[in-house]
Amino acid sequence: MTNKLTRDRIVDKADQLFYEQGFEHTSFAQIAEALGISRGNFYYHFKTKDEILDAVISHRLVRTNSMLDNWELEGDTPIDRIRSFINILVVNQAKIKRYGCPVGTLCTELAKLGHPAISHANELFMLFRAWLRRQFEQLGRSGDADELAMHLLAFSQGVATLSSAFQDEKFIHNEVNRLDYWLASYTNTTNNQSEVL
């Protein structure tokens, strides 16, 4: 197995375990054991847990950028593209119910720890914020595009948190339908503010 492949496997497994168990509660030993590799092989690629965290966040940023690029290609209109963002709550509902949002949980944990990587992790939210802002700008909402992007991010984080707390699949679907209704109001609005959720 090549060094790059081993390193990529470590990052993938660490990403999964940080999401499922939390960064603080995941050890080198757990990652190495889950992959079936020696501690020496592990330490060849990463000397500290913070190095792994940095690699995991960078990996998530690449994946998120790729997902947003795909939504740009697949969506004919800004409404279609924003709906792709909303629908990740349904697409990933099993994991969200069990572990919460991967971005939100990581940022919250790092903030609680006062970890210096929080600013790097927050770049994940900034990617979504900038992308959503662009979509609202294309809907003709330049004046409040960033506010709407933040509103949608906040609402989706609330849905992820509560669905995990209450383990309620119906709640996710109801709230996604509500978000779709809110978003659809933009196609019927010319220059008036749409109703806030």
SSE topology:
Blueprint: H1 3-21, H2 28-35, H3 39-45, H4 49-74, H5 78-91, H6 93-99, H7 102-113, H8 118-138, H9 145-166, H10 169-184
As a percent range, the share of helical residues equals over 70%
- Looking at the structure, the CATH topology of the largest domain is Tetracycline Repressor, domain 2
Number of strands: 0
User: How large is the count of helical segments?
Assistant: 10
Overall mean confidence score, pLDDT:
91
Name of the CATH architecture of the largest domain: Orthogonal Bundle
The CATH homologous superfamily name of the largest domain equals Tetracycline Repressor, domain 2
Structural class label: mainly alpha
Structure description:
- With 197 residues, the chain is mainly α.
- The chain contains ten helices and no strands.
- Helix 1 crosses helix 2 and helix 7 packs across helix 8.
- The chain is elongated.
- The N and C termini lie far apart (51 Å).
